[in-house]
Amino acid sequence: MDAALAERQAADAAAEAARAKARAARTAVERAQRQRTELVEEERRAWAALRAARDRFTAAGAPPVEGDDLARAWQALLDWARAHREELSGRVAELERAEQDLRASGGAARATLTELFDRHGIALPREAKPDVVLATHLAEARRDLDDLQARRSRSAALAQEVEQCREEERVARTLGNLLKSNGFEAWLCAEALDSLVTEASEILLQLSGGQYELHRAERNELVVIDHNDAGTRRPVSTLSGGETFQASLALALALSHQVVGLSGGKRDLNSMFLDEGFGTLDEATLDTVAATLERLAEETDRMVGIVTHVPALAERVPVQFAVTRDGASSRLRRVEV
């Protein structure tokens, strides 16, 4: 019995020891879990600090945070920082040298400005900086320039207005002279003649194959411009018979159109007759004249009558009348074409 009791006590002691170990193990596990949680949180803060540190230098070209090795990521950032610091150190030295050069250049420029001020008699206030004084004078010069340009624009506008007034004065003086005595009548006739000659010149240019134009000279005399002779101007009296006929025909055609135009459309020339003159034309000119008359009849719905002994021209007339002599009289008959 004593042995059983002793065995029981030993078993209880062993159980108590086991329970103590279990409690110690649980305590160690809980401590380890807390430490793990703290370590995870510290690692998270370390990653956050790393990313924050990297973000501060993103503009400077810091490398991105990659991988899941915190120590390696920090080391990569530190390596970049060291290399960047060396680069910046070199640039700082370069910038310092550039600053020194600029200071030297600035001093030389200020000395040059001071010399220029003295040369041009510009007083430099005491303790004043030459560049500031120069900027002030430049601003004043620009204001003066703007004012001069504005005055120049106003002067140009006034000059244009004066010229317009002078033109109106010239027109009024001209009208006054024209309205005196027979001046207006002479002016009106000259204008009508110019209009007639201009239109006749266009027709003659076509009839002559681009050789002749008409022009009104002084004293209302007509001259021709010969484009085949370097634009020489000569009296119409120097034209040959065929050329004179072309000029006369051009004037007649232009006059017929002018009469209708001056009447304001209230009068119309329904017919037009041309008597001879065709025999003086060569074959090419005769063809041009005939084509012009045919086009005139078609475009104006006007009857164009031709009196001619030229068979080549008569053949082109759609309606023909033949005149034959019969003793002391003449007979008229229609010819079927």
UniProtKB/TrEMBL annotation:
Residues 1-45, 78-105 form a coiled coil. Keywords: Coiled coil. SUPFAM superfamilies: P-loop containing nucleoside triphosphate hydrolases (SSF52540). InterPro entries: P-loop_NTPase. Belongs to the SMC family. SbcC subfamily. Heterodimer of SbcC and SbcD. This is Nuclease SbcCD subunit C. It comes from Actinophytocola xanthii.
